[in-house]
Amino acid sequence: MENASEKGLEGTGLELPKNRHGNLKSASTDQNLLEILRDIKVSKSPAVINYGASWCGVCRQILPAFCQLSNNFPKLSFIYADIDECPETTQHIRYTPTFHFYRDGERVDEMFGAGEERLHDRLWLHS
User: May I ask which residue range the UniProt record assigns to the signal sequence (predicted)?
Assistant: First the structure.
């Protein structure tokens, strides 16, 4: 399962697809997530944040697809944030996985649960 010394995507213990566009990041601390959220607000570029947990079976099921989809939408920023690694900034997350979609620096949509086709459609809509 999770390697205690690794955090973020590496800490999931999953074999994940390679990201070809450099648009996939991992937030492994509260400070790191705050910086990413600030960058989203300032840059106003479209982004999606996947709030998950390494112990969540549904999160582990959708994460490889999330990483693969980052290759299909190079203009979108993809961020994975583990709620256990960012406890202060993810207090508002009540269900994992939760996806937040950003456009022009503002959160414009939210999706709960997994579903690769549903996620793809939302990404297409917000890219």
Answer: none
Classify 107 as helix, strand or coil.
Answer: strand
**Both structure tokens of 58:** 């549904």
Catalytic residue among 37, 56, 86, 123: 56
82 three-state secondary structure: strand
The number of domains in the chain is: 1
Phi, psi of 15 (to 5 degrees): -85, 110
Over 50: is that where the pLDDT of 23 sits?
yes
Per the listing, tokens 């937040």 go with 100
Question: Is residue 67 annotated as part of the catalytic site, yes or no?
Answer: no
**pTM, full prediction:** 0.92
First to last CA, the chain: 33
The single-letter code of the amino acid at 31 is Q
CATH number assigned to the domain comprising residue 68: 3.40.30.10
Question: What are the structure tokens assigned to 7, written together?
Answer: 């955090």
Beta bridge partners of 48: 78, 101
Whether residue 3 is contained in a domain is answered as no
